[in-house]
Amino acid sequence: MTSRTLAAFFTAAALCLGIFDRAAAADKPNILLIISDDQGYLDLAAAGNEKIKTPALDRLAREGVRLTSFYVAWPACTPSRGAVWTGRYPQRNGTYDMYRNEAPDYGHKYSASQYAATFERIGGMDEREILIPRVLKDAGYTSGLYGKWDLGMHRRFLPLQRGWDDYYGFVNTGIDYWTHERYGVPSMYRNNEPTEADKGQYSTHLFHREAERFLSQHHDKPFFLTVTHNAPHGASNLDKSGLKPPQKYVEMYPPAQNDREKKLNEYMATVTAMDESIGKLLDLLDKHKLADNTLVFFMADNGGSGGADNGPLRGRKSTMWEGGVRVLSLARWPGKLPAGSVNNEFLTTLEIFPTLCSITGAKPPEGVVLDGFDMIPILRGDRHSPRDEMFWERRGDKAARVGKWKWVAHEKPQGSQHSAAGGGLFDLSTDIGEQKDLATERPEVLKMVKDRFAAWKQAMDDAEPRGPFRDY
Fold it and tell me: From 224's CA, which of 241, 381, 412, 421 has a CA 20 to 30 Å away?
């Protein structure tokens, strides 16, 4: 064989291998997961909210599935997100409360040396926990995360150490949208390093910029792109100056006549700014001809707060009422999921991890108990959800859903005016607003639900302990 013939052979072989690689990549769906922060259950025009402008989310609802009975695993930020990434109850993965400092609530600004020793700075998810991008990496995926992290600020806890390939965002909870500070503490990171390079730019636009860059660089191979907006979470600024969205989004709404309307307009404008980013990402998928091979999943991290509309649900963020744990959610996968459909099946964020393993061919971590299942057949309408139970615990607050029954028990601290205090037993099939307490009428059902909660609690206590809260 001559050198020229040999060269031609290797060239042809390389081309064939390239074709096979691209074909293999085409068989693996891409994933775009978008999480909003404190968005209300009804903060979507497609769900009947005539006030708010959400054309991109409406497009997702029109081209995909709107989930009406989708739950998070905790009624506030940190444990809710930890459950998404691990596929495990917060009580199982060890992150079942917030990594927060309380002093800023009383106007205190930490010095750098003070902040360095606080729990908000040193707390983080147990390093033994395996997060979604780690198993996707083994299946050939490149992963990017842009926006809120909230599961630890020390290097060992940051996204790159948990499986992501690229990260830009803020590492704790709500920030000022322009300074990127949490109560005066700079919070933005690029990969493993803090940065203030973009201070003064609107955070929603920054997270979109990074997501767009990721898509431009990685659209030709399987990717897991996660955009975790801080919108429309309240701004964590010491001067309490509010959300301050760019004026062009505020002007999309009728002029406010009073302070209440002004705050509501700012909230809705913040949602609309995020929605614009989502629309541009959908357009980029179209541009790169990836829409048909990309599962787009959108969800709020917990119930709405601030100007959010949680109707027809009772309660808000941080409560065990439906308005704290049942959230707005949409899924689109053209040709795989029915367009323009509404799915009322009982599903949760615990289903996300096993679902992504199933559709990508990624192997679930060995020896790790996952608390969910592949929900694609349910979203397709091929079968009913096998989920019949879900349980929540937040300090002294407890709740359980068993079938159609929902039990809520809110602890009322001594001297507290906490409006969520109390609880009861409710039939969600006829009372989604949790208005009629049936505990007295149906004591046998109440006992059954409490017994199921107790069994779940025992299972969580018996699980291999995880930090940082467990004593072991």
Answer: 381
